[in-house]
């Protein structure tokens, strides 16, 4: 016959187990939130926090045996892309270097992490953190430009990040998320509207033409989704920006259309070099991180720079580095996520629609900028992009997991 102590144990054991799982859930969510905040502040901190979040996620999967692994549909093209990349690495001109470089594929696990932990209303909190940290980062860039002489092509604002290209790419994504909140959100629209000008000005002062192009395309998508007539405002806004911008910025803008500009000529030359690499290595490419190793062999006479570490074009870089099958899989990923996000913009309402619109604009901005810069290969940029793309799908999930918060 069970004693009073046995009965007490039978009652308290499940409660203690539930309490431990709840604490683990809270810890996992907190660490992921810190990771997302750190993405625009510190590369080292975001790397450590990502590792901690992965450990918490694994612990959740182990302790909640009844819980099934879930991902949005666009994760599967990324998984196939990772497999194709590993095949390319083994066939690389230097397999050792390529395999080490493929460690970036771990970043794709951000998708199931965010999908699992940023569910329900939490997704909107994550978007708010991205906008708030982006606004603070913009202020840092404005301070660098105004007081620290980060005001020329040799020394550009870079915020708290390691490179002005990464910084401008992050601001581009944040501007898309903030713009979507302003255009599609029902609540919390005022403060994104107030900080968006600072983000746009800071982005303009980075002198980064690829991010400017991506931003214009992303904003055009947002405005057309809201009301196609609003797109007419973009040329007006550009004209006003050119009037008030410093001459160094306007000169940089006009250089976009200058076919004799050295960087423009070099990008055309890089496309020719990349096409030759694809022709010689169509199935597996030259290998991840090997474009710089073979560039001298494929360098065309009209090239400006003696060496380029990548080809400043996402589709060409993927095809040359990993082969045409990898490019096809990457296009599968882009089409899948674009289609699913567009459907959510059309059929969802409120905050979830704002998340989907911001993610779709971010994707299109990445593509626009990616024709002039290999942003998909920038780890800091890619991590932020993957978070933004996953949030709309996570927002559709219930916040509780089998009765647990």
Compose a concise summary of this entry.
With 405 residues, the protein is an all-alpha fold. Helices cover 70% and strands 0% of the residues.
Describe the structure.
The chain has 405 residues and is an all-alpha fold. It contains 17 helices and no strands. It has helices at 4-38, 43-63, 75-90, 95-101, 110-117, 122-147, 164-184, 190-204, 209-226, 233-244, 247-254, 262-280, 291-298, 314-322, 324-347, 350-370, 379-395. Helix 12 (262-280) packs parallel to helix 14. The two termini are 36 Å apart.
Keywords, separated by commas or semicolons:
about 400 residues; mainly alpha; 17 helices; about 0% strand
- List the uncertain runs: none
- Determine the fraction of residues in helical runs and give it as a percent range: over 70%
The backbone outline, from C-alpha atoms, is globular
Q: Class by helix and strand content? A: mainly alpha
Largest sheet: none
Query: In total, how many beta strands?
Result: 0
Kindly report how far apart the N and C termini lie.
36 Å
> In percent, how much strand structure appears in the residues?
under 5%
Quick check: average pLDDT? 92
Total of helices: 17
Element-level helix/strand string: HHHHHHHHHHHHHHHHH
Radius of gyration: 23 Å
